[in-house]
Every structure is written in C-alpha cells, then in structure tokens.
Specification:
Blueprint lengths: L2 H23 L4 E5 L9 E4 L5 H19 L23 H13 L7 H19 L1 H14 L1 E3 H8 L11 H9 L5
Helix pairs in contact: 1-2, 1-5, 2-3, 2-4, 4-7
The protein binds zinc ion (ZN).
Length: about 180
C-alpha cells in the first residue's frame, strides 16, 4: 500500500470512527463499520435504522467532527469545544453525509436558503460535544479499524463498552439526545 493510499485510508478510519462513536453514545447500535471504498464514499458506518432525523443528523455530522478533532488531538484544544462549520458536500467523505442532512432538514421543514445551514451546524456542535466526551473511544477505535478494515457490530461493542456512560449518569450524549428532541430554533 502506498503512503498516500495509507494516509487516505487512515483519514477515512478517523471519519468513520466518528460516526461510530457518536451513534453508540446516542444509544444507536452500530452493526458494521468499514473503510472499504464503495463508489463516492470512502467508507461506511451501518447502524440500526432510526426514524429520528434530529438524532440521525447528529450521527451524520460525526464523521466530519472527528476529522476536525483529530487535527487538534495533540493540543489542549482536544479538551475544548471546537468552533466547527459544516463544510458542505466537499470534501468527498462528507458528500453522502451532506445529502442525508439536506434530506433530513427538508423532512423537518427547514428552509433550504435559511435555517437548514443553521440546523446542520447545530447537529455538528452536538456531535462534537459527544466526541469531546468520548474522545478516548475514537483514539482506541481508529487504529483497530485502520488495521482490520471492516469491523462487525460484535467487534465494535467491546471496544465501545468500557467508554460507555454508567447507567443513570447524565452525560453530554444524554443531553444531546434531549436537546435533539426539542425544536432548536
Ligand atoms: Zn460520513
């Protein structure tokens, strides 16, 4: 594998690990995650379908949030909220996420010229909150995903479990879910 290919695959692993950790933290079981390329998408995180666009929107922004947080992981910023902006359909790893987010925003009646952008950035902030809280899980997942290329749900669970919030504890993830059930404008 060329260095460039390895670098690209690693970037995809960081992106998919973000989707995975955000989903698990929101109580949505991931059934598989892969960095095998398929069409326009560099990888894919599969999880139980949820009919909650507000929550699924947070998961959809988790890949980009992870990419951005990875860039600051060796600085003190990794303990702080990041001032993130949704990049739109580019770069390529966010293309399908972008489509999904636009569709959800439409379903929720957001105005494409106005509050859609605001709504997506709101999801991104919540995803980043979750990743800040569970960053250790991302750090653990990325090298395993990079090495194994595809992980089943059964393989993801024991990686996630030690990081999962204790029963009854109120966490950032719980608050994100609570907030996601409310209208956010
Ligand atoms: Zn993605």
């Amino acid at each position: 594998m060329s260095d460039l290919l390895a670098e690209r695959r690693h970037a995809i692993a960081v992106h998919e690990a973000g989707h995975t950790v955000v989903a698990m933290a929101l109580g949505v079981p991931v059934t598989s995650v892969t960095i095998v390329r398929a069409g326009y998408s560099g990888g894919r995180t599969n999880y139980d379908p949820i009919n909650l666009p507000e929550t699924d929107g947070i998961i959809a922004t988790g890949g980009h949030a992870s990419t951005e947080r990875w860039k600051v992981r060796e600085s003190s910023q990794v303990h702080e909220k990041l001032p993130l902006k949704w990049p739109g359909p580019t770069p390529i790893p966010t293309r399908n996420d972008h489509k999904k987010l636009r569709r959800y925003a439409h379903e929720l009646g957001k105005n494409p010229e106005g509050d859609t952008h605001y709504w997506i950035n709101g999801r991104l902030t919540l995803a980043d909150d979750i990743l800040m809280r569970y960053w250790a899980a991302v750090e653990e997942l990325v090298p395993i995903l990079f090495a194994k290329v595809t992980l089943s749900g059964e393989e993801v669970t024991p990686i996630w479990e030690p990081h999962s919030p204790k029963l009854g504890a109120t966490t950032e993830a719980d608050r994100a879910v609570e907030n996601s059930d409310k209208t956010d404008d």
